[in-house]
Design brief:
mainly alpha; 0% strand; DNA-binding; homodimer; 219 residues
DNA sequence: GTGTCGCTAACTAACGATCGTAAGGCAAGC
DNA sequence: GCTTGCCTTACGATCGTTAGTTAGCGACAC
């Protein structure tokens, strides 16, 4: 595995929250797997490569994880659950008013992608490597998360605060712009995650026809 | 190759322009390769699978293309060249005025992604499978295309017509939202490519603080 | 018209390599 | 003693690609 490959994302640090896995070794395996999946794709990253970087032999990984697919599934499940949790939590904590709700959702969405850029990017590029059976709960989570954002937009449009020529496309735009952050963001960007999400909230509100409104305070 | 996989994009038709390759057989190979790369990833799609679907044996592909990587490179090169060409052409044809320029660029950008959704999506997800050497011209083209959009935004901001809290993030938002179209678009969506790009132009202008301005006429 | 040559595009067979994973074994810790 | 976590060995499978062969077609010469 010494072949130099074309970079498809800016992130180079496979950040995962400490304690995600039940042991240090399992955590290391996930972290290395995430990085190699990001660099080489799921199929392009072999168990021998992952094991070598962890400092063990490939067959030993099976003491910890049942299969290669299981590694990917752990990563993608956590990624989607965390995303969903963050947005739900942000919505629950925000005032029940459409600008505040939208701001909170976008902030959470963008922050997920600045906090876990590599994980977020892999979640989008390597989904195909999951069997339909393994992937369907992940897709269901994704749909649920999207629906939360769509509901916020729908309510805002219904109340007349948001004005859009096409509601679903507004949701697609707001979701998509946040998602792409994962592909270009690195920690040495001139703004931190909070700074970026402030700006993104402003842009999302503009998309919704709320121009020049101050973004929600970030405390 | 009968394993059912999780879908990561909506497009299911590997559209490429007729005459892209120099013979029918070469064209068929590219079309099948595009679809299988999209479904299974570059490494997950084997030459035997591609050959079987074309109706020949894997070794015969080498009469037409030097390597598996060459297949991917042909696809990605065309995708990036076409994208670049369309945006350049649209900018050249539009009036030299920042709203018209931005509108033209966004329209061309979005139309590329509705005309070639599968190719566009694969261009983003499978870049890693190119060696650095093969991929660097592709990345250079990408950077050039981005720079065109960035220049349009910069000029608009400089002239005072566009007002943004962060110029580069506005470029990232506008580019990213168009790019994501490739992942959800299918031809049975309620709007066609023109309809979608009309809306996207409106949203992009809103991001830039030009609210409620009529989008450029699409003749 | 016929035969020959060269080229293209397909084939078969196989190479060297790598793959994910199973089975059996050993050592350390509790 | 049992469990865990590592090892080695190896399996069956697949991979991208090479080398050699064959058939068909078109061009050319006789």
């Amino acid at each position: 595995m010494t072949k130099k490959v074309t970079r498809r994302m800016a992130a180079d640090r496979p950040y995962l929250p400490p304690g995600l896995a039940t042991s240090d070794t399992r955590q290391n395996i996930l972290v290395v797997a995430l990085r190699l999946f990001a660099e080489h794709g799921f199929e392009g990253a072999s168990m021998r490569d992952i094991a070598n970087e962890v400092g063990m032999k490939a067959a030993s990984i099976y003491s910890h994880y049942a299969s290669k697919e299981q590694l990917l599934l752990e990563l993608l499940r956590f990624g989607h659950e965390e995303h969903n949790r963050r947005i739900r939590s942000a919505l629950n904590a925000a005032p029940d008013e459409c600008i505040a709700q939208l701001s909170a959702a976008v902030r959470a969405h963008v922050r997920m992608h600045t906090d876990y850029p590599m994980l977020a990017a892999v979640s989008n590029t390597e989904l195909h490597a999951l069997s339909t059976e393994a992937g369907s709960p992940v897709l269901a989570l994704r749909a649920n998360t999207e629906a939360m954002l769509a509901e916020v937009v729908r309510k805002g449009v219904q109340s007349g605060v948001f004005q859009v020529p096409h509601e679903w496309l507004a949701v697609a735009v707001i979701g998509g712009m946040g998602l792409r952050v994962a592909h270009w963001y690195t920690p040495d960007f001139e703004l931190d995650g909070d700074g970026i999400s402030d700006i993104y909230v402003e842009y999302a509100l503009r998309v919704l026809g709320v121009s020049g409104t101050r973004p929600e305070q970030r405390t």
